[in-house]
Amino acid sequence: MVSDNTKIGTGLMFLGFTFLFLGVIFLFDSTLLALGDVLFLTGLTFTIGASRTIRFFSRKDRIRGIIAFFGGVALVLFRWPVFGMILQMYGLVYLFGQFFPIAAASLRDVPVVGSIFRQPSVERFFSSFGSGGDGRRAPV
């Protein structure tokens, strides 16, 4: 059973991604990007809980990604959207890089896109992120 907070958080994260996508499509509109950032962070907090969100964003081993992500959010809020989004992307890859091989492995079983994710070059690309089977960290 999924709680109401998780449902609300998932919806807010979807809206956040939608506004981020629209902000990029409309030539890095800083208002849409800022709204997407706020909705994404709010949705993440609702989805996994406040204490787990604080614990995730206060880990010492990921301080580089945390500073990059929140620095990018600050740059977007200060109307430097292109540099802010570049910094946010770096922070997201650093923070969530270990999740990419897991997502790619689950997408291999999807009927339409599974054949793409089974290609050797795509498998090598996703195995380079995170622990990827050989214990390495994210390549950033």
Q: Kindly report how far apart the N and C termini lie.
A: 37 Å
Structure class: mainly alpha
Portion in strands: under 5%
The largest sheet is: none
Number of strands: 0
Helix content: over 70%
Which descriptor suits the 3D outline?
globular
Poorly predicted regions are: 132-140
What's the total helix number? 8
Mean pLDDT figure:
86
Using only CA atoms, what is the Rg?
Answer: 16 Å
N-to-C SSE string, H for helix and E for strand: HHHHHHHH
Task: Give me some keywords for this one.
mainly alpha; 8 helices; disordered C terminus
Task: Provide an overview of this structure.
Residues 132-140 have low confidence and may be disordered. The chain starts with a helix and ends in a 13-residue tail after the last helix. α1 packs antiparallel against α2 (30-48). The chain is an all-alpha fold and 140 residues long. The chain is globular, with a radius of gyration of 16 Å. It has helices spanning 4-25, 30-48, 50-56, 63-77, 81-96, 100-107, 114-117, 120-127.
